[in-house]
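Lecture 7, part 2: worked example. A protein chain together with NAP.
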Amino acid sequence: MRLAVVGFGGVGQAFVDLLLLKRSYLYNEGLDIKINYIMNSRGGVYSPTGIDCASLVEFSKANGDLSQYKNGGSKQITFESIMKNKDIDVLVEMTPTNKETGEPGMTYIERALEKGIHVITSNKGPVMLAYKRLNKLAAKNGVQLGIGCTSGGALPTVNGGLIDMAGAEILSIEGILNGTTNFILDEMAQKGVTYDDALKKAMDLGIAEADPTLDVEGWDTATKLLILTNILMNEEKTLADILVEGITGITPEQIEKAKREGKKYKLVGRTENRDGSLHMTVRPEKLDRGHPLYSIDGRHKAVRYVSDTLGDLTLSGGASGVTPAAASVLRDLINIYRGYRYSI
Ligand SMILES: NC(=O)c1ccc[n+]([C@@H]2O[C@H](COP(=O)([O-])OP(=O)(O)OC[C@H]3O[C@@H](n4cnc5c(N)ncnc54)[C@H](OP(=O)(O)O)[C@@H]3O)[C@@H](O)[C@H]2O)c1
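Predicted complex, written out as C-alpha cells:
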C-alpha cells in the first residue's frame, strides 16, 4: 500500500516510527507499506518508490522543515500535488483538530475520498462535524474511512461498537473518555490533595497538556461522546446538544464525602434515553462500588455500551500517548488491508 502521511507532529512521527518498529510483523502479514509522501504545514518529502523513513526520522529530529530534506524534500509538495500525482492508495491524515470547521483535515479527507483513496484519520474535527457525509462519500467511491483513533486512541471505542456490536442496537453509552481528568480525580481521592495540586502533578508528569482547558472543562470528553453517539446510535447531534460540566469545581471535601459513602467521582460522558428523548451529559458523577466504571482509575479510560441483544459490555484500558494513538491508526490500516469494510 502506498501512503501519504499528512501531518507530521507527535502522532505522525510516532506512526512512521511504528512502521519501522513493526516492519517484520507487517512483512509477515504480507503488507508492503511504502510512504510516498510526508507533509506538514511547511512542505513535504516525496519519493515515488517510498521514502527512506529511518533516514527521514533522523533528519526530522533536528529539523522540522521537511522541505530541506535532501532526498525529496520540497516546498512544492502540497496536498494538491499529492492529489495530482495519483500515486497513493491511502491518506493518513493527522493534522490538528479544529472543532469549528474541521479544516484543514476536512478538505484533505474529502478530496482523497472523492479520488477513490482510502483515508485513516486521527483528527476529531472532521469526524465530529461530518462523519456521516464523509462515510457516504467513502462508500460511493468504493473506499474506506478509518476513524478508530478519534475517540480514545488505543481503547477501541468506535471499532468495538461498530465491529463487535454489529447487529445490536446500542441503547446507551457511558464512558470515562479522558485520561487526564480521571488521573486528577484519582489523585485527589488517593492523596487528599486539591484540584490545583493534582492538576500540577498531571502537568509535571506530562499527562496534562500545557493548556488543559479542553480536558478539565469536559470538552474533550464531549467531543468523543458526540462521535460515538452519532456513529453508534445513528444520531445527528452537535456539541450544543450536550450539557457539559468539567471537574474544575470539585473540592477535596466532595471527594472525601464520596469516599465515606464508598463512592468515587468520575467525569462521565453519558448518552441515554430518558422519557422518550435522548439526553447527553458530561459531568462529574458519583459512582457506586458496583458500577462497571468505578474501578477505572489513574489515567485509564473505559466505555460501556448497553444494547438490546448483546447485553451490557464494558471495554476498558489501553495505553495513552502518541505511540498508542499511532498504533490505533495502524490498526485501521491493517484492517482495511485485510478487507474490513467500515464504509458500506
Ligand atoms: N497527541 C495524541 O495523543 C492524540 C491522540 C488522538 C488523536 N490525536 C489527534 O491527532 C491529530 C494530530 O495530533 P498531534 O498530537 O500529532 O498534533 P501536532 O503535534 O500538533 O501535529 C500536527 C501536524 O499537522 C501539521 N499541519 C498543520 N497544519 C497543516 C496543514 N495545513 N497541512 C498539512 N499539515 C499541517 C503540523 O505541521 P507543522 O509542524 O509544520 O505545524 C504538524 O506536523 C490531532 O487532530 C489530534 O487531535 C492526537
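The mean pLDDT is 96. The CA atoms of residues 117 and 264 lie 46 Å apart. Keep this in mind for problem set question 3.
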